[in-house]
Design brief:
Blueprint lengths: L5 H7 L1 H10 L5 H17 L5 H11 L5 H17 L3 H13 L7 H21 L1 H10 L15 H21 L5 H18 L7 H11 L5 H17 L2 H8 L1 H4 L4 H13 L2 H4 L3 H9 L1 H4 L5 H18 L7 H13 L4 H17 L5 H17 L10 H12 L8 H11 L6 H16 L15 H13 L5 H19 L5 H18 L5 H18 L5 H13 L6 H19 L8 H14 L5 H14 L4 H11 L7 H16 L1
Helix pairs in contact: 2-3, 3-5, 4-6, 5-6, 5-7, 6-9, 7-9, 9-10, 10-12, 11-12, 11-15, 12-15, 15-19, 17-20, 19-20, 19-21, 20-21, 20-22, 20-23, 22-23, 23-25, 25-27, 26-27, 26-28, 27-29, 28-29, 29-31, 30-31, 31-33, 32-33, 32-34, 33-35, 34-35
Amino acid sequence: CLSALTEHFHMQSESLIKPLMQTISHQHYRVRVDVIQATGAVIQFGNGKSVDDVLSHLAQRLFDEIPKVRHAVTTVIGEWLLHLRDRYSYFHKLIPLLLGSFTDEIPENMKLAWTYWEKIGLQWEKENEEDLKDKMDFSVSPSHYPRGETRPGLGCRELVSRNLSKILPGLCHDMTDWVESTRIKASQLLYTLLLHAEDHITQHMELLLRTLYQACSDEASEVVKNSVKAAELIGTFVSPKVSLKLITPAFEQTPKASCVMVLAAVIRGSPKEILQPHVTQLGNTVSQAGVCQRSEEVFYMEQLLYCVQALIEVCQEDCREISLQLMKVLVTIMAIPSSEDLKEKVEKTMSSLAEVQQLEGFHCLYKQHIIQLLEWVSVSCEGWTCYSPEVLQFEVIATHSGPVIGEALDDFVLVLKTCLQPNKDPQMRLKLFTVLSQLLQKASETINSQGLFPSYLETVIKDILAPNLQWHAGRTAAAIRATAVLCLWALIHCEMLSPKEILKVKDELMPQVIASMDEDSKITRLMACRIVDVFLKVCGRQFDSDKFKNTYTEVLKRLDDASCDVRLAAAHTLANWFKCLKDSDVKSSMEGHVELLYQELLVHLDDPDENLQKAVLEVLKEGSILYPDLLVREIEGAVHKHQTPVYCNQLLHHIQSAKESA
């Protein structure tokens, strides 16, 4: 009806637009569908200048919850792009609306939009055949194209490319709109447009990057996902020479997580052979301190990890050039306090980096770079505090490299010697002592994997342990002494500190270890008792009277300790004390001290703890060899005071038997 009255209708059509637009959001969807169809006919057969008046209303209907309404909009826009007299003037306004239906949740609507778009592209090709002749004859399909995507026809690509400069500013504005659904729709459309524009993206890079940096930090995950996909297309179609020149300045300031996310996406989208000349630049960019040490925020570090993963995935064996830089980044990520999940991801990434270099595992990477990594992390070790990120990085290198750390002891011990001086930050020293203690507990698998650690023992003991065993006030100082004692015990327990070495260091360490038996920490008191016990076995026979006296008086106090373990360890140490005195040249001058020790031990022989009673009985049996008659007198004087005289009787029987056998 309307088409038959074109001449007359052309004059009147404009007056219909206002009432139609007032009804386009009617509550009944069938009315909305009819209004959209009517609007299409009115514009097409009437005054085409009214397009601007209806576009925003039609765009709004693309968000309609009823699929048939969106179907009607797609049909109207498709028809206009095919048949509207002034369509060339409105391409930049109509194309975004049609392409917006490519991501409709209803497959029928998507198919409709694609069908129209293919027809529009072919029609435009035909209308501009002369202009496109060279491209039609000599155009070559790109060798690298996004997986799972079909390349649009030449006409479609040209339509987008020629109108992109008019579409992008408004679209980029919509990607920062306050309405989430608008931002999602805009991000979906951006991907579609860039897929069509291909290398024409290059001239719009500055605007695109600004938009993507903002969009990648959006609260809506869908916006971020679409923006990352769009950034991957930059990698696919834009030369890295251009894209990296524009992206890397963002890393020279204070890079945000979204900047790293965009770089990772660009790398993922790039062809390996085109990215290869820029691999070193990329490695240097991500490994600079201002980038990889900028934040301890887990989300930021995750993006940095994805960036490294992208480089490994795309560049493969070319990563050999930047293996050290990537290891620095991975060590930094692993050093931040975070979940085990992130640490596992870092370890897998290290394994991937090793694999592309045809190495057996990440330990081989450490073997390749251990000296450089320790040099890198220790440059500023003179000024380390507990807040220095390098302390945590040093911990990762030392503990995560497994047996490889045993090949770099020069650098490792030098860092410890520098940082574990008493004038350095206490919390930092505590952290490093904890690391050393962990390594010493598995010395053969870590620092002594090559059997070289014993040659550093003198430095470790005299320059590192001894200064930190000295008493200083405060809880942190006490914790440092505790870890120092643990380290010393670990050296003795794993037999790295041989009897010969103990003889060298006994004079320096013995007073401080004895003093440690009075610490608040139970574990420190226990370890100190065990260390004194070992020192007695090794060199007790060479003690002078003062050393014998100082040793037993402090160990004896531990028989009153709150901890059963410490009391039993003290008893064992006193048994060895008696053994050493028996063969010593100063035995005769110690009779008075032995008498006092007999008296104190007889008190503990009546202890409520049966285990301690038995332990003290063994100590007195060992000590009875020195002055048996003196001990018998002491027993006879004390036995009537004991609640359980059975142990006194056993001891008397033991002394009598010993005399008879002698």
